[in-house]
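Quick one:
INPUT:
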């Protein structure tokens, strides 16, 4: 059987070609039949443009139905899709094009000139533009292509996409994902989360990232479900649309922002059956407050660009706050210490994963790839975690964020939780800063909450001294109006380290 991911998805499409696939903000509907014919046109265009199986197709475009046709068309043509965050600036795009050498670069209309310059310098042979309303040369050319296309025969091991890691530290690396990687994760998630007839996905995530492009979209397509396909997250609009939707996927900041809406009530979400959170840690307060306001229990899961989802809280059993649940079927997850030796429950160590969903390596970085896999084929995620006695995994932080002070390990998450529990604190981030005596000094950056006017650095330090070991207590506390976050809601600790390092 053809292992091309598109072929797998298409086998699950509804038999009625008029069944709705995308429902757009202006009420326009794109049927499954149209998705099939549009993706055929884009696939045809790519082949006509000289894209051969294995060639990369880079796209730095806004979210739109056409952007989705391009992704699916690329799969169908056997190309390797390379989505780029529209927030990336010239220097970053220059790096991605030079590194990935795509056969086509699709850019936004307002960036056409710059894109052509960069493409020329990186020897990328072709540039098209695509705007958020479907304007530009790409869609115009696609419209001239036939609406039938025989999806390329792919092996499971053929590359389907390269996603550059969002990289809160260091240079972005291109994670190579195969048709098998994406298919394995899509099938598992669709089943584990209990997708069923009648489901409608509210899709407000960006589609340059694993969360919105793969997790959300593949689940809906495998279910033959409609997606309420919105250009971006907007809490008020979300509440309106939840009256017609059943499943929502978001990053924790989406939930925090929904909680700021008076309209978030039990009635407003009565039609919804599942709220999924991930890509960054969900604060227990958000989890608790969401349940109190809506009666709905957020389902937190954990994964990354390099393999999609690894663990999830169970839909049908206890969703344990502060944890990311159990390893998904088909994904082995272990927590290890020195020498990659697995640790017993309760101990903190490095999280490693293995399974069909786990990527095959970093683009043109064989050395780096070798370093990141163990001899027995587990990928070193770079996350620290701990299994509890019942098998729920908790994420403790990134190993790069681990602070070593006076030779002792400090996990920022533990200190952040203690600070966040103090009255008047909205949130906090704990970082290690270079220190002559200690190597690194535990340092806290605190955002005041509504009743936080009276908070002082001395007060916080004094309060912590009674609760946690002295070496873990921050040597300094700084206040900030907010914490810098990337597009997926992750706190950018590298920026905090730069800002507060003396
Ligand atoms: P990305 O590749 O951009 O999806 O980022 C993956 C990283 O996000 C993981 O390695 C984790 O550090 C973090 N992450 C994802 N989901 C969660 C979660 N539920 N809780 C805590 N961290 C998470």
């Amino acid at each position: 059987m053809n292992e091309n991911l598109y072929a797998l998805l298409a086998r699950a499409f509804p038999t009625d070609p008029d069944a709705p696939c995308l429902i757009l903000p202006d009420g326009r509907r794109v049927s499954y039949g149209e998705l099939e014919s549009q993706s055929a046109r884009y696939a045809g265009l790519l082949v006509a443009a000289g894209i051969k199986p294995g060639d990369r197709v880079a796209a730095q475009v806004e979210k739109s139905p056409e952007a989705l046709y391009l992704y699916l068309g690329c799969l169908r043509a056997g190309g390797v899709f390379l989505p780029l965050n529209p927030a990336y600036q010239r220097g970053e795009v220059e790096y991605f094009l030079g590194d990935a050498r795509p056969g086509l670069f699709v850019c936004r209309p307002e960036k056409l000139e710059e894109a052509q310059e960069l493409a020329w310098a990186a020897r990328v042979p072709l540039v098209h533009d695509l705007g958020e309303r479907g304007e530009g040369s790409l869609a115009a050319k696609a419209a001239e292509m036939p609406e039938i296309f025989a999806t390329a025969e792919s092996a499971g091991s053929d590359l389907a996409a390269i996603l550059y890691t969002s990289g809160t530290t260091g240079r972005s690396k291109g994670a190579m994902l195969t048709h098998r990687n994406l298919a394995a994760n899509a099938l598992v998630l669709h089943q584990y989360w209990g997708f069923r007839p009648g489901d409608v996905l509210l899709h407000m995530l960006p589609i340059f990232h694993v969360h919105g492009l793969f997790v959300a979209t593949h689940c809906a397509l495998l279910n033959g479900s409609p997606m309420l396909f919105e250009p971006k997250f907007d809490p008020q609009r979300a509440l309106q649309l939840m009256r017609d939707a059943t499943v929502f996927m978001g990053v924790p900041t989406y939930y925090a922002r929904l909680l700021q809406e008076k309209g978030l009530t039990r009635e407003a979400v009565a039609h919804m059956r599942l709220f999924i959170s991930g890509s960054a840690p969900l604060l227990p307060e958000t989890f608790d407050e969401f349940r109190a306001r809506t009666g709905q229990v957020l389902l937190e899961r954990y994964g990354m660009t390099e393999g999609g989802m690894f663990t999830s809280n169970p839909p049908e059993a206890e969703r344990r706050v502060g944890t990311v649940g159990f390893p998904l079927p088909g994904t082995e997850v272990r927590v290890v210490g020195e020498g990659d030796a697995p640790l017993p429950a309760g101990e903190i160590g490095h999280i490693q994963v293995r399974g069909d969903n786990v990527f095959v390596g970093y683009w043109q970085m064989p050395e780096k790839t070798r370093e990141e896999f163990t001899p027995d084929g587990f990928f070193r995620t770079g996350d620290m975690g701990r299994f509890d006695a019942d098998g729920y995994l908790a994420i403790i932080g990134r190993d790069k964020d681990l602070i070593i002070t006076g030779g002792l390990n400090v996990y920022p998450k533990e200190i952040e939780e203690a600070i966040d529990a103090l009255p008047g604190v909205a949130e906090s981030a704990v970082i290690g800063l270079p220190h002559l005596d200690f190597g690194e000094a535990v340092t806290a950056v605190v955002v005041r909450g509504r009743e936080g006017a009276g908070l002082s650095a001395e007060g916080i330090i004094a309060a912590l001294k009674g609760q946690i070991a002295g070496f873990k207590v921050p040597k300094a506390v700084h206040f900030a109006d907010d914490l810098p976050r990337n597009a997926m809601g992750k706190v950018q600790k590298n920026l905090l380290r730069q800002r507060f390092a003396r």
